[in-house]
User: Which sequence fits this backbone?
RNA sequence: GCCGCCUUAGCUCAGUUGGUUAGAGCGCCGGUUUGUGGAACCGGAGGUCCUUGGUUCGAGACCAAGAGGCGGUACCA
């Protein structure tokens, strides 16, 4: 007899960095996004949705090619040989949209958007290759008022998510300040110094993880980490390193004092003074609208790793209730941020188009909220109408429709199996109320209502199966006519 | 990309010096119970021991390469 070959079945599996998100996660995410939308809406922003794919050259200056086909972005060739890429954020597509529809849009154009973005990078804990971002941006406004507004929005989104003041902080800095400091340390504020400036930014971005010593090494010659990997440094002079490190600790809980400190540090640098002036303007608007230092602070140690920011930058950080040794709230970490990016839209057009925005990662924000035990209300499982007697299916569907008409989730059991199976199903679904109507009840125009939550509670006192079966805990008979109001009563109880 | 650790049932894991038919707990399915969830008891299904090659009379175990997973680090326009 020939060897029986096993059928070649595909293995049910999922690429790494791409997540399935079940009901409880999705519902929480929807609520979070809806809360953010409500804030964006209240400030007068309008929704926009753009596609997942864009032309590769629209997304950035790096074209996927034979040498570097897929670094960072997912890309494929369309049937006309043009490169398409999945968007890696929502900002670049916005820049494209504004540039494409420039003349038709009233400026400043202010929109909000959320959706999946894709990064072809190594995933890690809390890092995925597909994740949902939720953004608001303002395009065409050069004034610091637009930046101040984005900062207020960020703070209000924190509040709308259920956080109380003190559980979060928006930390604001300005790229122009660092440009000024570096200028004075011999790093020219031109393209020639761009690479060095980026290295400095990335070094500062690692302050909380590597500490001052590690960052000092990265600002200078370079640093070898524990696994033996070497990272080349920014090669600043000793005085440059000192100036940069001094800058990162120049902030004070008082915003006004921070500005005073910074004015001394930037000295004669024109760029630096511009930065100070912008912070002063932002401070004035925050003060006028009551955004105190408990919600928004100036913090020179945050820079954001991205290269495209040109002015004010900020991060939204969650603070756990636990205090550290110095009595300050412990940082859980950055869950979002934003800033001014004046060159992103002008890339497509000859003229300058200033822009500023705010963005947060939905799932990262959500898991941070969970760690902080911010209660996210749960959706009630549906009322379960058991298919006791298959001849009564139309009556069951009628009852379910009556409940739905009163905004009560209801489900008729459409699977197979006897009542035992149906009760097990209801139990597993977390159903609170089960409706039982067999021919006995139907003839009497009554309904048997069972409270499964209460029943489970009562079951703890019952050990023998006979007693369990005969007692039929937490069950009541109600009239068919009062069915909806009785269920409403039972659900509210 | 670089460094380290790991891979046996759906999950968590055991598996002796290399020796017959690879086990446990939990979970799942069925029954006791087709008008009732839990508990209890009884029964059942479920395995390419990650893959390929090598050593050996004999490999889940030893060796090599590869794949996948996890963690660190770098990159992230």
Assistant:
């Amino acid at each position: 007899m020939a060897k029986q070959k096993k059928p070649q079945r595909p293995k049910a599996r999922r690429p790494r960095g791409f997540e399935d998100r079940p009901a409880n996660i999705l519902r929480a995410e929807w609520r979070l996004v809806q809360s953010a939308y409500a804030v964006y809406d209240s400030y007068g922003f309008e929704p926009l949705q753009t596609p997942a794919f864009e032309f590769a050259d629209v997304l950035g200056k790096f074209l996927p090619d034979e040498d570097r086909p897929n670094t960072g972005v997912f890309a494929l060739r369309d049937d006309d040989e043009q490169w398409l890429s999945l968007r890696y954020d929502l900002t670049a597509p916005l820049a494209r949209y504004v540039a494409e529809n420039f003349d038709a849009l009233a400026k400043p154009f202010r929109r909000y958007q959320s959706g999946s973005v894709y990064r072809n990078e190594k995933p890690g804990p809390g890092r995925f290759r597909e994740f949902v971002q939720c953004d608001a941006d303002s395009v065409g406004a050069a004034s610091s008022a637009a930046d101040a507004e984005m900062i207020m929005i960020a703070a209000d989104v924190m509040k709308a998510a259920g956080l109380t003041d003190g559980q979060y902080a928006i930390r604001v800095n300005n790229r122009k300040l660092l440009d000024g400091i570096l200028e004075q340390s011999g790093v020219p504020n031109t393209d020639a110094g761009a690479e060095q400036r980026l290295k400095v930014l990335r070094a500062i971005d690692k302050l909380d993880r590597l500490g001052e010593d590690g960052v000092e090494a990265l600002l200078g010659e370079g640093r070898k980490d524990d696994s033996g990997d070497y990272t080349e440094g920014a090669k600043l002079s000793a005085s440059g390193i000192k100036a940069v490190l001094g800058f990162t600790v120049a902030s004070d809980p008082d915003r006004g004092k921070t500005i005073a400190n910074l004015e001394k540090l930037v000295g004669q640098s024109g760029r630096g003074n511009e930065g100070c002036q912008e912070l002063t303007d932002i401070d004035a608007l925050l003060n006028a609208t009551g955004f105190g230092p408990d919600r928004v602070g100036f913090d020179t140690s945050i820079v954001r790793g991205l290269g495209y920011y040109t002015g004010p930058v900020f991060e939204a950080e969650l603070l756990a209730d636990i205090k550290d040794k110095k009595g300050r709230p412990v940082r859980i970490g950055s869950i979002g941020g934003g800033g001014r990016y004046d060159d992103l839209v002008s890339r497509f057009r000859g003229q300058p188009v200033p822009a500023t925005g705010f963005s947060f990662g939905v799932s990262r924000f959500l898991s941070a909220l969970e760690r902080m035990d911010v209660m996210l209300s749960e959706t009630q499982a549906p009322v379960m109408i058991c298919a006791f007697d298959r001849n009564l299916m139309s009556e069951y569907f009628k009852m379910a429709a009556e409940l739905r008409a009163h905004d009560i989730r209801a489900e008729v059991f459409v699977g197979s199996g006897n009542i035992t199976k149906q009760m097990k199903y209801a139990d597993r679904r977390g159903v609170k109320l089960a409706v039982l109507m067999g021919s006995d009840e139907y003839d009497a125009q009554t309904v048997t209502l069972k409270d499964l939550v209460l029943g489970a509670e009562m079951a703890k006192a019952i050990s023998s199966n006979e007693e369990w079966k005969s007692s039929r805990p937490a069950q009541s008979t109600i009239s068919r006519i009062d069915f909806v109001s009785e269920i409403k009563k039972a659900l509210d109880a």
